[in-house]
Amino acid sequence: MKSLKAEGVKHMFGLPGGQILPVYDALYDYPELNHILVRHEQGAAHAADGYARASGKAGVCLTTSGPGATNLATGILNAYMDSSPVVAMSGQVPLKFIGSDAFQEADMLSVMLPITKHNFIVRSVTEIPSTVKLAFKIATTGRQGPVHIDLPKDVQAGKADVKIPADVKYAKATKLEPERKRVVEAVGLLTKAQSPVIYAGGGVISSNASRELVALAEMLGAPVVTSLMGKGAIPENHPLALGMIGMHGRRVANLAITESDVLLGVGVRFDDRATGEVSHFAPSAKIIHIDIDQVEIGKNVRVDVSIVADAKRGLAAIIGGLRTHAKKGRTSEWLKRMEKLRKEYSPRMDYDEVPIKPQRAMKEIMSVLDEDAIVVTEVGQNQMWAAHFFVTKKPRHFISSGGLGTMGFGFPAAMGAKVACPKCDVVDIAGDGSFLMNSQELATVVENKINVVACIFDNRFLGMVKQWQDLFYKKRRSAVCLGTTPNFPKLAEAYGAWGDCASRPSEIAPKLKEALRCGKPAVLDIVIDPDEHVLPMVPAGGRLDQMFT
Amino acid sequence: MKQRIFSVLCENSPGVMMRVSRDFTRRQINMDSITVGIEPSGMARIILMFKADDHMAEHLYKVISRLTQVINVEVLEPETSIVREVALLKTKKLSDKKMWEVVQVVEKAGGRILESRNNALVAELSGNHEDIEKLVQTLGPDVLQEVARSGQVQISREMG
Question: B59 — contact with chain A (CB < 8 Å)?
Answer without folding.
Answer: yes
